[in-house]
Design brief:
The protein is mainly beta and about 400 residues long. Helix content is about 15%, strand content about 55%. The chain has one domain: Porin (Beta Barrel), CATH 2.40.160. It has a 14-stranded antiparallel beta barrel with strand order 1-2-3-5-6-8-9-13-14-15-17-18-19-20. A hairpin with a 3-residue loop joins strand 17 and strand 18. The longest helix is centred in the first third of the chain and has 10 residues.
Length: about 400
């Protein structure tokens, strides 16, 4: 830890009296779903009676692939701005990214009685959860026509859990005479002997790149942030299972002699299963961002920024770097390209930044708004999902972000 502090404080030796110093605190909470709403979450978290109609409504609410994404992050950034940008940042991040089919919801909510002589598809099911800290060094160059910034991050991994079923199905025969179950699953769990929030179960690296330049009357921004991975320690548990078996029920002659041999005799044991304690690599969600800013002659839209955001996060490190690997990372991120446009309005008391967007983890249209106030401190408070705040139990997303900055 002492070495890390020395590395990140080294840029302080380069600062001059003419530089501008900016310290910023950022907090962000985001929850998005493309189908499951607040009533589902309240029922799961706080209990209560769940009716059959509620289950049916939840199953039919979204796409066939249901996505849940949540992130809670807090951190600070220090930037020294002159002809060069030099700084560092620290953030604590907690991320959940899950995807599962409607058929998996049907099994969980309804069981298989109502789905006799049907094959339920549970492919492309994934649950990924991460907690880690990110230490970043920032370096940039400011020129008249172009600005460029680089970032290098050291990641301290606390915990990781992932369950990935790329192919799977459940078939229920008429009258439930037998079940055919097939699945190809990989699971990764870090060392469970230390579940403290500050546990060090892995280390990783990430890089950032961004550039801003002008073309005619437009300002162009292009960036790639958090392109990185964490190598988890060899004490982690890894599981690979490729199974196909038929379950025809269990016949018990003596209820007091119910043991593993009875289960094995009825084909309940996986055909191919391999569990190890070994190191593995997981990816953090990388962000690719392209935007164009300009001015208009309209009274209520003097400035605008339009852009597109994409995410890249493969399930596993199972392919060499190639075009197939790049495409895999986009497909497995559970994120649809996010298109947005925002503007900026000055009012007497604060600045207002409204936005419209479509896509993301919710794969839906969203209305955002942020309020900014400049003074001794610059305050920013906003949400990406204003419409969901007013939707009650039908809300599928909630987000709040806050920052306070001081320049001296």
């Amino acid at each position: 830890m002492k070495k890390i502090l020395i590395i990140f404080c080294t840029p302080l030796l380069l600062f001059s009296q003419e530089s501008k110093h900016t310290v910023t605190w950022n907090s962000n909470f985001l929850f998005e779903s493309n189908g499951l709403d607040r009533s589902f979450l309240n029922s799961m978290l706080y209990g209560g009676h769940i009716t059959g109609s509620m289950k049916t409504e939840w199953i039919n609410a979204g796409d066939n692939d249901n996505v849940i994404y949540s992130e809670i992050s807090n951190g600070f950034t220090y930037i020294n701005t002159n002809k060069r940008n030099i700084g560092f940042s620290f953030s604590d991040r907690n991320i959940l990214n899950a995807s599962f089919t409607d058929d998996l919801l049907r099994i969980g909510f309804e069981g298989n009685f109502n789905h006799q002589d049907k094959t339920l598809d549970i492919s492309n099911t994934s649950i990924r959860a991460d907690r880690f800290q990110q230490y970043k060094i920032i370096y940039g160059v400011n020129r008249k026509s172009i600005n460029m910034n680089l970032g290098f991050s050291y990641l301290v991994g606390n915990h990781h859990l992932s369950y990935i079923i790329q192919k799977g199905s459940v078939y229920t025969a008429p009258f439930g005479t037998y079940l055919d179950i097939e699945y190809d699953m990989h699971a990764f769990v870090t060392d469970t002997s230390d579940l403290s929030l500050s546990a060090n179960n892995g280390n990783g690296l990430a890089i950032d790149f961004s550039t801003d330049f002008s073309y005619k009357e437009y300002d162009i921004h292009l960036s790639v942030t958090d392109l990185g991975f964490i190598m988890w320690k060899a004490s982690s548990i890894t599981l690979a299972t490729d199974s196909a078996f038929k379950f025809q029920g269990i016949e018990v002659d003596d209820i007091f002699n119910f043991n593993d041999s009875v289960i094995e005799a009825n084909n309940l044991i996986d055909d191919v299963s391999k569990t190890n304690t070994s190191s593995f690599k997981s990816y953090i969600p990388a962000t690719i961002h392209l935007s164009v800013s300009g001015e208009t002659e309209y009274k209520y839209l003097k400035t605008y920024t339009a852009g597109i955001v994409a995410k890249w996060q493969p399930y596993m490190d199972n392919e060499p770097l190639s075009f197939a690997k790049i495409n895999q990372g986009f497909n497995e991120s559970n994120f649809s390209p996010l298109y947005y446009i925002n503007s900026f309005f000055n009012t007497k008391y604060c600045d207002v930044i409204p936005s419209l967007s479509y896509g993301g983890y919710s794969k839906d249209g969203n209305i955002g708004v942020a309020l900014s106030k400049e003074g001794k401190y610059k305050l920013l408070l906003g949400t990406h999902h204003l419409e969901d705040i007013l939707s009650g139990d039908d809300a599928k997303a909630v987000s709040v972000y806050f920052s306070v900055a001081r320049q001296f």
